[in-house]
TrEMBL record:
It is found in: Nucleus. This is WRKY domain-containing protein. InterPro entries: WRKY_dom (IPR003657), WRKY_dom_sf (IPR036576), WRKY_plant (IPR044810). SUPFAM superfamilies: WRKY DNA-binding domain. Its main location: nucleus. PROSITE patterns: WRKY. Keywords: DNA-binding, Nucleus, Transcription, Transcription regulation. Residues 115-178 form the WRKY domain.
Length: 309
DNA sequence: CCTATTTGACCTAT
DNA sequence: ATAGGTCAAATAGG
């Protein structure tokens, strides 16, 4: 029944989120009033008040973000929300050698923002096509498009940006739907962490529509070409090297952009899900059973990243 | 040789 | 005018 996040539902959910935030802000205000009174008890009220103040600020900021009318700004933790219209962006067909008018820049369009401490593989084959240093951002942004952009006209793309180093935190913004055909990734099934037993069942299920950006909530493995797990993990030592030489080098666009690049041509994608080409085993349109709960889980501490950049 | 990545140039939305 | 997104030539790797 509940189709996971229909576009029409988004605004309703958004409204609910706004209402919830408003209510939360109001409740916090009341709490503040209550806490203020027992000052005479000599307790450490100041830190509490300080905290409450910060909480309220977070609410206010979040509200302002949401009210700025861009749904894409909403941080969704866990299951990403549905991308609404893949059409807002098209690279267009460029016939002449002249690149003028060859593509249309994406307007501020619907997107799917997801964050994770390690780069979670979303099961699709991606190809990097650009990298850019973003104003006021410490780390460069990496641009990926679906590997099947041309052979299958798949318009899906994503941007990945490291937003925090310690602990590492990456923000992935998805645009467009995957219209490419994809198949269950065998390697994923095999390699999937034994941590919890139920993840497999999730991974194996598919969505009817080929592959929605219904990325699984369950921990997924990085796309793996034909390399072994070991190779994937060997990726980390490389980073250490870079940090060793100079920690600032770490985010230099060209020299070393950490996990996001594929150093040397093979998958470095521990993080970024590199193209999983080879054996034609990509993708995992995992059906997230809990996808319907469009939780807008706003973590106060993490409100910070809204301003990074 | 083929495919993927890097990276500066180009182009558009704001 | 500028920041951000994309293109495509050069380059790297298998």
């Amino acid at each position: 029944m509940e189709s996971p996040s229909l576009p029409e539902n988004s605004s309703a959910d958004l409204n609910r989120a706004i209402e919830g935030l408003i209510r939360g802000r109001e409740l916090t205000r009341r709490l503040k009033e209550i806490i203020k009174k027992p000052l005479a008890l000599g307790g450490e009220v100041a830190p509490i008040m300080d905290l409450v103040g910060k909480i309220m600020d977070s609410f206010s900021e979040t509200l302002s973000v949401i009210n700025s009318d861009d749904v894409s700004q909403v941080r969704v933790v866990g299951t990403p929300v549905e991308v609404k219209s893949p059409e807002d962006y098209s690279s267009g067909s460029c016939k002449s050698a002249d690149r003028r008018g060859c593509y249309k820049r994406r307007k501020t369009s619907e997107s799917n923002i997801k964050e994770s401490s390690d780069l979670v593989d979303d099961g699709h084959a991606w190809r990097k096509y650009g990298q850019k240093q973003i104003l006021h951002s410490t780390y460069p942004r990496h641009y990926f498009r679906c590997t099947h952009k041309y052979d299958q006209k798949c318009q899906a793309s994503k941007q990945v940006q490291k937003i925090q180093d310690n602990p590492p935190l990456f923000r992935t913004t998805y645009y467009g739907h995957h219209t490419c055909k994809s198949f269950p990734r065998v390697s994923q099934i095999i390699l999937d962490s034994p941590m919890d037993g139920d993840s497999n069942s999730v991974l194996l299920s598919f969505d009817q529509n080929n592959c929605h950006p219904n990325y699984s909530n369950a921990p997924t493995f990085p796309s793996i070409k034909q390399e072994t797990k070991e190779e994937v993990f060997s990726f980390y030592p490389k980073i250490e090297d870079q940090i060793q030489s100079s920690s600032s080098d770490y985010f230099l666009p060209a020299a070393s952009d950490d996990h996001l690049t594929s150093s040397g041509g093979h998958m470095t994608a521990v993080a970024l899900s590199p193209d999983v080409i080879s054996s034609g085993v990509y993708s995992s349109c995992t059906t997230t059973t809990s996808n319907d709960n469009l939780e807008i889980d706003i973590d106060f501490e993490e409100c910070l990243w809204n301003f990074e950049g």
